[in-house]
Design brief:
Layout lengths: L14 E5 L3 E10 L2 E11 L17 H14 L5 E6 L5 E7 L6 H13 L9 E11 L2 E10 H13 L3 E7 H10 L8 E7 L3 E8 L2 E9 L6 H15 L7 E5 L6 H12 L4 E2 L7 E2 L7 H14 L11
Parallel strand pairs: 1-4, 3-14, 4-8, 9-12, 12-13
Antiparallel strand pairs: 1-2, 2-3, 5-7, 6-7, 9-10, 10-11
Amino acid sequence: MSLFRSIRESPAPDVAVEIAANRVSAATLEWRGGRPVVAGYSIDPLPDGTLVPSLTALNTNNRATVAGTLARALERLGRPRRIGLVIPDAVAKVSLVRFEKVPPRAQDLDQLIRWQVRKSAPFPIEEAQVTYVPGLASADGHEFVVALSRRSVIEEYEALCADAGAHAGVVDISTFNVINAVLAGSESPSADWLLVNVAADSASIAILRDEHVIFFRNRAAEAEGTLIDLVHQSAMYYEDRLKGAGFTHIFLGGAGTGAVEQVRRELEARLGTSVSTIDPRAAAALTDRIAAAPALLDTLAPLVGLMLRDSRPSTVNS
C-alpha cells in the first residue's frame, strides 16, 4: 500500500526517513543472502513545537532545525541522495469510497474520485493531492482507499529533504507503512485484523481484510475521549456495519511514544483478546550490532515498511 506513490513514481528506496512531530528517524536496508537487513539507523528528537502536523496549515515552525536534524541523520547513513519519506498521518485525510461500477478509463476514475472527496475536503480540491489504491471488491461494488492532502504541505516536506541534500523519491504516511511492514513479515495476517498505531500527535486505527483496508480513522492526541474508547467504538462498528466475524490478530505500534505497554494492557482488557506489538524483524532482520529495544522496533516499523513496499505484490493503481 502506498497512497502517495503518484507524487514521485519510483521503486522502493534503500534509505527511509520519517519526519514526525517529536523526532526525525532514518534507516538503511541491505540485502544479504537474499534477505533484507536493517544495516543502520538514526533517531534524533525534535524540540516541542518545531513541527506540528496539520492537514490545512504550515507544518514546520522552524525549518532550519528540522532540515538540520535531517541532514545529521543522513550524514550517519552515508549521505544518500535519494530517500523514501514517511510523514505524519495527520497530513492526509483518508476515506473509503465505493462505486457500483468503475469507469474503464483511468482519467474518468480519477475525476470521479476527486468529485466524491471534494465534498469533505477542508480546502479547494484544486489545491489537493488526491491519490488512491483499489480496496475490497464485492458483488455490490468496488471500494477505493483515498488519501487527500494539501499539495503545498507535501511540497513543504519534500523541501525539507532538499534542504538536507536529499530527494524524496517516495512520500507516504506512517500507518500505511506500518501495515506494509506487517504484510511483508514471514507470517502476515489473514482474514480480518486490527492495527492501532500511536504517534506523538495522533493515533490511527486501521481494520484490514487480508491486505485490504476496510476501515481507517485518525484521532488527534488532544481529541475528546480516550483512545481505548475509540478503538472499542471502531470494533463495534466493524461488527455491526462491516460484517465482522472477529479479528485474527490485533497489532499495536507505539512510534516510540513510551506508552506502548500501558496501551497494550488497556486494549487487551477492553477487547478481551491478546494484542501484539509491532516487530519489523519478521520482515527485515537487524545486524548484530543493533540491539532490539521495543522503542527502536516501533520506530523502525514504518521505515522498514516503506523500504519493503515492493517486496510483495503491489495493490497500487494511482
